Structures are given as C-alpha cells and as structure tokens.
Amino acid sequence: MLKSLNATELLLAIILLFNLVFIPSSLAESATPLDELPSLDFDELMAADIQVTSAMKRLQSMSETAASIYVLTNKEIVQSGVTSVAQALTLVPGMQVRKIDNNQWAITARSVAGRYSSKLLVMIDGQSIYNPGFAGVYWEALNIPLFDIERIEVVRGQGGLLWGSNATNGVVNIITKHSVDTRDTVVQLASGSHIDHKVNFRVGGDLANYSSFRVFGSVEEADKSGESRELVNPNDHSKKKTIGGRIDLNLNDNLSFLAQVDYTHIELGQNIALADLTTYTSHLVEDEYSRDHIQLMTRLEHRLSADSNQMLQASISSQQGEQRHYQDKFLITDIDYQMNTLLNNIQFDWGLNYRYNDIAVEDSDYVKSIHNINSYYHYGGFVQAQFTLIPDTLKLIVGNRSEKNSFTGWGHQPMARLLWTPDSNHTLWTAISQGIRIPSFAEYNESLLVSSVYGGLRTELVGNANIEGEKSVSKELGYRYSAKSWWLDVSLFHTRARNVLSVDPKVNYPLINLDFVSGGELTTYGGEAIIKWQPYDKLSTELGYSYSSNNYHSSKGLIPALGGDSYLRQLIAKTYFSLTSTHSFSAIYRLEGGDAYGTKDYGALDLSWHWQISPTVMLSVTGNNLLYGQHLEHANGDELFSIGTYIEPSYLAKITAKF
Q1: Using CA atoms, how far apart are residues 234 and 82, in angstroms rounded to an integer?
Q2: What is the rounded distance in angstroms from the CA atom of residue 86 to the CA atom of residue 200?
Q3: Residue 52 class from Cβ within 10 Å (0-12 exposed, 13-18 middle, 19+ buried)?
Q4: Which of 52, 99, 207, 635 is surrounded by the fewest CB atoms within 10 Å?
Q5: In angstroms, rounded to a whole number, what is the distance separating the alpha carbons of residues 154 and 107?
Q6: What does the buried/exposed string (b/e) look like for 218-232 if buried means 16 or more CB atoms within 10 Å of the residue's CB?
Q7: How far apart are the first and last CA of the chain?
Q8: Is the pLDDT of residue 478 over 90?
Q9: Residue-level pLDDT at 27
Q10: Torsion on CA atoms 634, 635, 638, 642, rounded to nearest 10
Q11: Residue 544, Cα to own-chain centre: how many angstroms?
C-alpha cells in the first residue's frame, strides 16, 4: 500500500509542479484568444485526407500511415444513430464486436472476441482504460456522450511499439473534442423499446481569454430483454450515471495544458454460470453487479521549436466492482513522457513510461489469491525513427520498445515499416513487428472455481507465477488508392504467437486443477478490404469485408485456454444519404459468420433517420437488429461465467438541442 501511495503522490506532485512553474508565468504571455483558434472539422469526404495520431504517435495524414487504420468521424457516429462507443465499433470493418447481452460486449480485432479479451488496447485521449484483473475493458462502464467525441481511431494489428504491451491485436483511441469546440450547451433525450430513458448534457464556455472548459453528464436506465427461447430469464437491465469535465489552457503560442476527469457508476443485471458449492456442477444465477470508475488525466504539451515538441501526461484510474463471484478494486497510476523532433530530415520520436497497479481482490467462494500479490508495475521506453529514402516516395520507419514488468521481466517489441507512395493516389506499405502480451493478474495470482464437467469433481483454474509473456510476430501488407470520388484500402496479415496461454489439467482426486501455462502456439492470418464511394456530396457509401483464421497448437496434454481452431468472416455495407437540407438517412448492414462463437451466421440491419427541425434542434429515429429477429451473437462455451442473451430488434427516438 505504501508503494501505491508513493506513486500517486509522485503523480500529484508532478501536476502541482507544472501548475506552479508553467501556468502562472504563461498566463501573462497568452497571446492567442480562443475565438481565433482554428476549429478543425475532420470531414469524411473522400477528397479529405484525415489526420490521425494513433498509428505513429504524431499527427499525420492517413495516406502517409504504414498501418491498417480506420477512422470513425463524429459525423458518421451521429448519422449511424449508435448510443455507445461499443456499438460505434460495429461500424469498423475488421473489428469483432459481439453483444453478450444488452450490457456486456465481446470486442477485439483480428481474433476471436470474448468478454475478457486482453489483446486490444483501448484509450480515451491517450489514457488507457484497461482493467488489470484481466487486462481488458469493461465496455459497459464506458459512458461518455458521443456528441463530444471528435473521432475514434482504430489501428488493426500490432501497436505495441508506441503504446506498450497488450496491444498485439490493435489499438482503439477515442479522441474527444477540444473544449474550445464545445463552448455551448447541449441536451439530448432518448427513449425507446429497450432504453427507458437516456439523458446526455454538456455545458461549455470560456475562462477569461486563455482557456475553455466543458462539463458533461449522462443518466441512463434500460429494461431487460424480452422473453425468449433461452433456458434462463433475461436479466440484463441497467442503470448508468456519469459526470465529468475538461479544461484546456492555451498558455502561450508554445505551451498548452489539458486536464479532464470523469466518474461513472453502473448497476447492471446479468446471468452467470457458477459452480454449485456442493456438487460443483454448473448452475445459472441471476446476479446484480455494480462498478465505479474514476478517470483523471492531465497533459502538458510544449513546442520547443519549429522541429521539436515534448509532452508529459500523468493519469490516475480507479476501478471498483462487486459481483457475486468477484469483487475487485484497482488504482492505476500512469506517467508518460514523449518527445518528437526532426533531425536532418529524420523524424525521431522517443518516450518513457511508468505504470503502477495497486490491486485488491477479495477472496470469495469462487476466487482466491494464491501468491498474496497486491501490486505490480511496469516501466520502459520506446524509440522510433522515420527515414526518407526517396523524397516524397519511399520511407522507412524502424523502432523498438523495451519494458520491464514485475510478472515476466523485460520484454522487447521491435518494428520495421516501409511506405511507398509512387504518386498521390497510390500507397503501398509493409510491416513486420513483435508484440508482447503480459499475463493478467488473474492468470498470475488467482485460483478460480469453475463448473465441473468431470462427474461433479471440484475444478479450479489456477494461476501460475512462472507463466511467460506471449510473444507474437506479425507480418502485414497494405495498399491504398484514393481518387476524387472513391477510396480503396486493402490489408493482409499473418501473425504467429508463441507462449500462448494454455491449460494443463491435473487430477488429484477429488480435485482437478487446470493450471495456466505458456505452452501454446497460435497462427492467425487474414485480411480486410474496404471501398468507399461518394458519387456526389449527398450520398456516401462503403463496403467492407474481412476474414481471419485462427489455428492453435498446444503441447501434448495441454488445452488451449482461449478456444480452438476457428475462422471468422464479416461483410459491412453502409449508406449515408441526405434527402434534403434537413433530412438525412443511414442504412448499415452487417453479415457476421464463422464458427468461433457457437452461434449461427446472422445479418443485422440498422436504419436511422435524422430531421434537423431547426438550426438548434434535431430529431432522430433509429432501428437496430432489424430483419433477422432474435439471435445469439456470443455463445462461446469457453467463456468463463458469462451467459449469452438473445439479441432482439430495438427502436430508439432521440432529440438533441443546442443552445
């Protein structure tokens, strides 16, 4: 506990130091009134080359990015009628997004998604929101108003060099709007067949002539699913509350400061499968569970010269949850420093990072600590250089990240990328990189009581202090073509991972131990193809197709912990049409197939209509999961505890007013 307090005190000291040293002297120098700052509009027109940051950790155009990247703009998020970040990711070709029930999601990229997927790094404005217990994300606790999101950048494939461990399948960076672009009041009311009511609001404005702010909040209450052909009654009702704020200080022409905080409380119903404490056979339980999340992040950006800038970011994340079988409490402290510079036409980036995790997981009938670990850390740094081999034509990007963690020691994530742009319309890129997945806290330190399939014998899934980090080598090849009215993006990948999580069954009557070990190999290959066509301003269309194959190999006697051999395929078709100056329409069709989730292939149609009643008021009506009817999206038998619910069609009306 003392170490945790020291890490937190160090973070607060850094924040205070920058407030005392930089801010007072800079306010007097402030020379850029907010009303003169540019308000960037990241349009989705095919002619626009959207600027992104997540692939290279510096602002650059998509056409110059040697990675498989997709950008969801604010305009597309609003037009689609989605109500959450998790649902918004269904719009991204190549993302595996499955609803377990009306609250819980299974999301990842280029792999099979699960409730506890751990290879996708998710951030809000560069701050990680992962849970150390399983190294994944509780998507139901992510409840920020969508109208304050500027864009969502999704990198499919390894991002470990720049963003650290456990980014082996991809990176999702949710980038919110600068508060200078939200200096108004917005109120949004929604209600429908599933959501009883959802209220979002935002109030923004200026602070003198050198800063801006916003305060936002959200309240939501939703019903459980209707009766279906399930073996258990649906129990996926929910209540959510969020409050937060952000302040941006434009201290002078070269120095800016950002601080943001949010608090979310959720109360959800769920169906879970637990082992009977007498017979150890599986029985289904209706459970109520709650979570409280607090995120605090500060960032100082300093332009040193026309060719160099530096950034210091410090954050604290507190997560606390209570379920029948699992009670957890985490305090995560992050400190990141980065410098970007130009040295003799070489783009040079380097950075340092430190993370400390304070952990408190209560022992219960189903979860017990086996090594008495209550904290862990990791720290390290990265370096990346971009060389121009042929001016305006050929670039080479090389780099490495090295990190040490208290579970598996040092790990290294080298990368090399080559970008060839023979002309302004064509881009060809290739990459080879190594990523590392650090074992989660549960895999390292916990024993989990699971339902027995061996005649009612007590069965425990047991962590292993000698487990190794998973290492994966990924090879990628991509091509982009852009013209005035259409755009093509194709990516192929092949990834081979070793030290993949497996289970070693050991029978010691009347106990069966399923020990976690690093004894597997996994080969994943596939690709994504996306074509966008915009024949004129009022009509935009997109077609995306993706395929991936997963092949496991474990040593004799071991069982893959994350599922067996499988394949996935996906087709997404999207159309956005402006009927008149005040009426617009969107249609999105997803066809999901494969054998990884224990479900049938299904198609889902989402329709949304928007009416701009006045310059300040908009009405929208959205229908989700139309045509196909009730269907299971996730029924993977290898998923611990979670029980899938039949997903049914739903309807939502929403009115948004700006003042």
Answers
A1: 23
A2: 17
A3: buried
A4: 207
A5: 12
A6: bebbbebbeebebee
A7: 47
A8: yes
A9: 36
A10: 80
A11: 20
Count of helices and strands (H, E) across the chain: 6, 35
**Whole-number Å distance between alpha carbons of 283 and 643:** 11
Q: What is the C-alpha separation between 634 and 631, in angstroms, rounded?
A: 9
- Do 4 and 356 touch, CB atoms closer than 8 A? yes
- Residue closest to 450 by CA, chosen among 638, 637, 280: 280
Q: Which amino acid is at 591?
A: L
Beta strands in 223-307 (DSSP E): 238-252, 255-275, 282-303
- Tokens 């009506």 belong to which residue? 621
20: phi then psi, degrees, rounded to nearest 5: -75, -35
Q: Which residue has the tokens 């007097």?
A: 28
Can you give the length of the chain in residues? 659
In angstroms, rounded to a whole number, what is the distance separating the alpha carbons of residues 287 and 268? 8
CATH number at residue 464: 2.40.170.20
pLDDT single digits (tens) 406-452: 999 999 999 999 999 999 899 999 999 999 999 999 999 999 999 88
What's the token pair of residue 330?
A: 């985490």
Rounded CA separation 327/657 (Å): 40
> What's the CA gap between 72 and 544, in Å, rounded?
14
pLDDT in tens, 48-64: 456 666 555 666 676 67
Contacts of 35 (CB under 8 A, 6+ apart): none
Closest CA to 212 of 223, 222, 202: 202
Q: What is the DSSP letter of 27?
A: H
What pLDDT shows up at residue 51? 63
Residue 38, burial from CB neighbour count under 10 angstroms (0-12, 13-18, 19+): exposed
Instruction: Extract the tokens encoding 562.
Output: 């994350």
Q: Are 420 and 393 in contact (CB under 8 A)?
A: yes
Contact 402, 415 (CB under 8 A): no
For 473, other C-beta atoms within 10 Å of its C-beta total 15
Residues of the domain holding 23: 2-658
Residue 15 above 60 pLDDT?
Answer: no
pLDDT in tens, 565-623: 999 999 999 999 999 999 999 999 999 999 999 899 999 999 999 999 999 999 999 99
Token pair belonging to 626: 């139309």
Q: What tokens does 601 get?
A: 């292939």
User: Other CB atoms closer than 10 Å to residue 344's CB: what's the count?
Assistant: 5
Return the SS3 of 596. Answer: coil
Longest dimension (CA), the chain: 76
417 neighbors 428 (Cβ within 8 angstroms): no
Main-chain dihedrals φ then ψ at residue 375, nearest 5 degrees: -165, 160
Please tell me whether residue 424 adopts helix, strand or coil conformation.
Answer: coil
* β 602-614/458-462 pair status: unpaired
For residue 600, the one-letter residue type is K
Q: Please count the other Cβ atoms lying within 10 Å of the Cβ belonging to residue 308.
A: 14
Structural tokens at position 408: 């598996």
**CB count in 10 Å sphere of residue 601:** 11
Number of domains in the chain: 1
Report which residue type is found at 461: L
Angstrom distance (rounded) from CA 55 to CA 62: 9
| pLDDT (0 to 100) of residue 18 | 36
Q: What tokens appear for 481 in the block?
A: 């073509």
Q: Please list, residue by residue across 63-75, b when 16 or more beta carbons sit within 10 angstroms of its beta carbon and e when fewer do.
A: bbbbbbbbbbbbb
Query: What span, in angstroms and rounded, lies between the C-alpha atoms of 342 and 478?
Result: 26
